[in-house]
Design goal:
The protein has 526 residues and is α/β, with parallel strands linked by helices. It has helices at residues 7-20, 25-43, 74-88, 106-116, 155-169, 215-219, 277-288, 303-307, 321-327, 344-356, 375-381, 392-398, 400-407, 418-429, 468-481, 486-504, 512-523, and strands at 2-4, 65-70, 92-97, 121-123, 138-142, 173-177, 199-203, 221-225, 242-244, 265-269, 293-298, 314-317, 333-338, 360-363, 386-388, 432-435, 439-443, 449-453. It folds into two domains: 2-48 and 57-239, 3-Layer(aba) Sandwich (Rossmann fold); 259-491, 3-Layer(aba) Sandwich (UDP-N-acetylmuramoyl-L-alanine:D-glutamate ligase). One of its GO terms (biological process) is nicotinamide nucleotide metabolic process.
Length: 526
C-alpha cells in the first residue's frame, strides 16, 4: 500500500519521531539532502562519472556546477545540505537565500553556518540575482516545500518567474525538493505562482499534490527517498488515509469448481435505436472483466439493431420503469449499469426503479444528468451499493457548491483539493464516487479514498477518446456483479482501465479497451 500524505500528516509524522527521541531534525535534514544527491545521480548517472573526456561532450567530475536556491524554512535547510554534499564531490556550487538567515529555523540555521564555512550566500531577492550566473548543470529548487501556506506574490513571484525564464533560456536541469516551489502539496494547485522541475524528490512518502491537478505536470519525474522514519510513525498521521491505486487483488482471478452464476449477472440498460453503441461498449467491458453473464436491456425499437451486434451478450426487452421492475425480480441479476447512451428522459424513468430494487448499481453519463436541477431527488434514493462515475462537468452539475470550491483560485494553502471534493460528495450522496480524470479520485462515505493516477510512468493520454468512460462503467459493473464491494470495484476497474490503454498505446479507440483485458490479466498471472 502506498499512502499519499498531506503536508500536515507529514509534519505530524516527523514531529512524533523527533519528540520520541528516535531521530533528530538535523538527522532528517541530512538524510533528505543525501536523498536528493542520490536521486540526482540516479536520474543522471553522467553527473557522477569521473574522467570523462572532453571529446565525448561531457564534463569530467569536478567541473559540474549547481545553483541552489534556498527558502526561509526547512526546505531551504535541505537545500543547504545538498549544496554542501555536492561541494564535497567537487562540484562548483552557488547558493542563494530568500529571507533573513537570522530567522531560519534552528536546523536550517545550523546547515547555513556549515555552508558559510565553504562559500558565500547570495541574496535571492537582489535585482537580477539569477541573470548573471554562468550556465549550471543543475538548479536546485529548495525555496518552498510542503509547508507553503501563503500565496506567492510580489518579490517571491518575481523570483519564480526569473527561475522559469532561466529554465526557458538555457538547457538547465531543475530539481525540486519536496515539491516545485509554489505548488500546494495537498492539492497540486498553484499558490499564486509556481515553477516547474525535471525531477522532484519527495521524502518518506509522496504527497497528494504530486498526483492531483497540475502536480505531475510540474514535478517532472517523481522519486521518493527514505529519510529514516519507520513505518510505525505513519500511525501519527491524522485524518483520512488516501492510497495510490496499485495492482489488482487475487480475488479478481477465477477458480475451479465454479460456474457462470458464481460470477454474477450484470444488466446494462441501453438507449433507443441509433444510440446503443455506448451500452454495448459497457456490456463488453462487463463481460471481459469476468461477469458470468451480461444482458443488455433495450427498448423494443432497438432490439434488432443490438441483436445484430452481440453474441455472448444476451438481450432482454426493457421498456419503461414498470417493465424494469419486473425484470429485476430475477434476483440473479445482481448488478445494473445505467447511463451510457441511455438518453436523459429514459434515464429519468429507469433510475428510480433500479435504485428501489437495491441492486449494486453504476450510474454514469445520462443517468446523472436528469437530476442536475434537483440532485436531492437522486441522493434520496441512492444506497451504499451504488457507484457514481462523473467527469468534471457531470460532477459540477450534481455538486455545484463543491465544484465551485474546487475550481476557485486558492487564497492560501492547503487548497481545497479533488480529494476533498470527492470525499465531500461521497458523504452527501451516501455512496462511492469515482471522479474521473488523469487524477481519478475514488471515495466512499466512510472516508476510504484512493487516487488512480494515469500519470508519470502510467500516463495514458489515449484514454481521451469517445466511449472510454462507457467501458469503465462496464468494468465497474462487471466487478460489482462478481461480488466486489463498490470501493473495490471502482478502484480495480479504474486501474485496469489505465493498464489496458497503456498496453494498446497510440491509436486506441474505446472498442480496443475490453480486448486488452486478457493480456493485462495474463500479465498479472490471473
Amino acid at each position: 500500500m502506498t499512502r499519499l500524505l498531506t503536508a500536515g500528516q507529514m509534519k505530524a509524522i516527523e514531529g512524533a519521531a523527533i519528540d520520541s527521541g528516535a531521530v533528530t531534525g538535523l538527522q532528517l535534514m541530512e538524510c533528505a539532502g543525501q536523498g536528493v544527491v542520490d536521486a540526482i545521480l540516479e536520474e543522471w548517472p553522467e553527473l557522477g562519472k569521473i574522467g570523462v573526456s572532453n571529446a565525448s561532450g561531457q564534463k569530467a567530475k569536478g567541473s559540474f556546477g549547481a545553483v541552489v536556491l534556498c527558502g526561509p524554512g526547512n526546505n531551504g535547510g535541505d537545500g543547504l545540505v545538498v549544496a554542501r554534499l555536492l561541494k564535497a564531490q567537487g562540484w562548483t556550487v552557488k547558493v542563494f537565500l530568500f529571507g533573513d538567515p537570522d530567522k531560519l529555523p534552528p536546523d536550517a540555521r545550523v546547515n547555513y553556518e556549515k555552508w558559510r564555512q565553504l562559500g558565500p550566500v547570495g541574496d535571492l531577492t537582489a535585482k537580477d540575482a539569477l541573470g548573471g550566473i554562468a550556465e549550471p548543470d543543475l538548479i536546485i529548487d529548495a525555496i518552498f516545500g510542503t509547508g507553503l501556506v501563503r500565496r506567492i506574490e510580489g518579490v517571491l513571484a518575481q523570483v519564480l518567474q526569473s527561475l522559469d525564464a532561466l529554465i526557458l533560456r538555457k538547457a538547465v536541469r531543475v530539481v525540486a525538493i519536496d515539491t516545485p516551489s509554489g505548488l500546494c502539496a495537498d492539492s497540486g494547485k498553484s499558490l499564486g505562482t509556481y515553477s516547474g522541475a525535471d525531477l522532484t524528490v519527495a521524502f518518506h512518502s509522496a504527497k497528494r499534490g504530486h498526483y492531483l491537478n497540475c502536480g505531475a505536470e510540474k514535478s517532472g519525474r517523481l522519486l521518493v527517498k527514505p529519510i529514516g522514519l519507520d513505518e510505525i510513525w505513519n500511525e501519527r498521521a491524522e485524518g483520512p488515509i488516501v492510497e495510490l491505486a496499485q495492482g489488482v487483488p487475487q480475488s479478481v482471478g477465477k477458480t475451479t469448481q465454479t460456474h457462470k452464476y458464481s460470477y454474477g449477472h450484470a444488466l446494462i440498460l441501453s438507449g433507443g435505436a441509433g444510440k446503443t453503441g455506448a451500452a454495448r461498449l459497457a456490456a463488453r467491458g462487463a463481460l471481459r472483466i469476468g461477469a458470468g453473464l451480461v444482458t443488455l436491456g433495450v427498448p423494443p425499437a432497438a432490439q434488432m439493431e443490438v441483436a445484430s451486434q452481440v453474441t455472448a451478450i444476451m438481450l432482454k426487452r426493457v421498456e419503461g420503469a414498470d417493465h424494469l421492475s419486473e425484470v429485476l425480480q430475477d434476483e440473479r441479476l445482481n448488478a445494473v449499469c445505467l447511463g451510457p447512451g441511455l438518453g436523459v428522459e429514459r434515464a429519468r424513468d429507469l433510475v428510480p426503479a433500479t435504485l428501489q430494487a437495491k441492486r449494486a448499481t453504476v450510474l454514469d453519463a445520462d443517468a446523472l444528468t436528469p437530476f442536475a436541477d434537483d440532485p436531492s431527488v437522486l441522493f434520496t434514493n441512492l444506497h451504499e451499493n451504488c457507484v457514481l462515475t462523473p467527469h468534471a462537468g457531470e460532477f459540477a452539475r450534481l455538486f455545484p457548491d463543491i465544484a465551485e470550491k474546487l475550481t476557485a483560485m486558492p487564497e492560501k494553502g492547503p487548497a481545497f483539493s479533488k480529494v476533498d471534493a470527492t470525499q465531500e460528495a461521497a458523504m452527501r450522496a451516501g455512496c462511492v464516487i469515482l471522479f474521473k480524470g488523469p487524477d481519478t479520485v475514488i471515495a466512499a462515505p466512510d472516508g476510504q479514498c484512493a487516487i488512480n493516477a494515469a500519470l508519470y510512468a502510467r500516463t495514458a493520454p489515449w484514454l481521451a477518446t469517445a466511449g472510454a468512460g462507457d467501458v469503465l462503467a462496464g468494468f465497474v459493473t462487471g466487478l460489482l456483479a462478481r461480488g466486489l464491494t463498490p470501493m473495490q470495484a471502482a478502484g480495480v476497474a479504474a486501474w485496469l482501465h489505465v493498464e489496458c490503454a497503456r498496453i494498446f498505446g497510440p491509436g486506441l479507440i474505446a472498442e480496443d479497451l475490453p480486448e486488452q483485458l486478457p493480456l493485462v490479466l495474463k500479465s498479472l498471472n490471473f
